[in-house]
Amino acid sequence: MSPPPRVSGHRRRVCAPPGSRLPWPRSRPSGGILSSPGSGGLSAFIAGLPKAELHVHHVGSASPRIVAELAARHPNSAVPADEDALAEFFTFSDFAHFIEVYLSVVDLVRDAEDVRLLTYEVARDMSRQNIRYAELTVTPYSSTRRGIPERAFMEAIEDARRAAAAELGVTLRWCFDIPGEAGLEAAEETARLACELRPEGLVSFGLGGPEVGVPRPQFKPYFDRAIAEGLHSVPHAGETTGPRTVWDALDSLRAERIGHGTSSVRDPELLAHLAERRIPLEVCPTSNIATRAVASLDEHPIAEMVKAGVLVTVNSDDPPMFGTDLCTEYEIAARLLGLDAAGVAELAKNAVAASFAPAQVKSSLSAEIDAYLASWRG
Ligand SMILES: [Zn+2]
């Protein structure tokens, strides 16, 4: 998180299936395809497509609906609980306002019940998009340093995970990430929480926050420790800095997937390496525009990544904060890659293949995607 989002606040169509409701005005960058003639059929296909998401943040997924519920639990907070007032609050005027809103949401997560509510409701928003499996990036350090007891925190996310699976059909797994801006103390604490408390749903260890001034190699000991405990390595790298950062993530942190990796296209040797080693990139197009890592969607390098043979997955990062959702990101990727329904289904299968789900979960979700495509064609 450190994005200056584009600002508008106009209403847009959402990809939630009929019957569900996400009635919020949300900002989104220009250049999408939602108003393109002829995109309606593909949009409907994407809405119903079973999907996996690999790069999406916990607090960054708090939609205005969820924020309203949290605000209602804490009437003394600065965040309005009234729907209309909250919609206005979520219309970002500039970067400083975005940070203010983000921190206000962080401030609403004060106890274990808030954590449980946030996590379960994020899964509910996922289910409305037919996201069936998600590796949610959680930053436990942010909550434990604010006084939420660590065991209560773990119980809250695990309780929400079990309920999401049973009641919503959404399988959640965790990536615990180090907030890079908080330095080595946060790294030490995140590694301790991951390795000592290790909740059942935890599958990976990450590194987020700013890249500039936060060299990846300094985090090697913490990643070594997490990897030794059987966790997968998934740092952010090469979003706001160059390809050297991606090499550092691979060499020092033994990255198995790269968060963003946008600047990889500036280094043909790196692209070839990623393709040859089958190291996936977690691409988040709208986020890249909002953070200005890429100037415009039309200049997004996703097609170069695919052309080089890299396994590309499409993700939403901090979706309500960026005025997007996973369906919208798939629509954008479809336009940039010139994909039809079969191509979009392949993209969805990429995410399943690149996930850390057990083989049986992968094969059944892939089979569901194939069956959905076949029924769509039929
Ligand atoms: Zn991210």
Q: Can you identify the CATH class?
A: Alpha Beta
Major β-sheet, in short?
Answer: 5 strands, parallel
Mind telling me which CATH architecture this is?
Answer: Alpha-Beta Barrel
The number of helical elements comes to 16
Q: Could you characterize the architecture of this molecule?
A:
By secondary structure, the protein is an alpha/beta fold. It is about 50% helix and about 10% strand. The protein has 16 helices and 9 strands. The strands form 2 sheets. It has a 5-stranded parallel β-sheet with strand order 1-2-3-4-5. Helix 1 (about 40-50) crosses helix 14 (about 325-335), helix 2 (about 65-75) runs antiparallel to helix 5 and helix 15 runs antiparallel to helix 16. The longest helix is centred in the middle third of the chain and has 19 residues, at about 150-170. It binds zinc ion (ZN). Pfam families: A_deaminase.
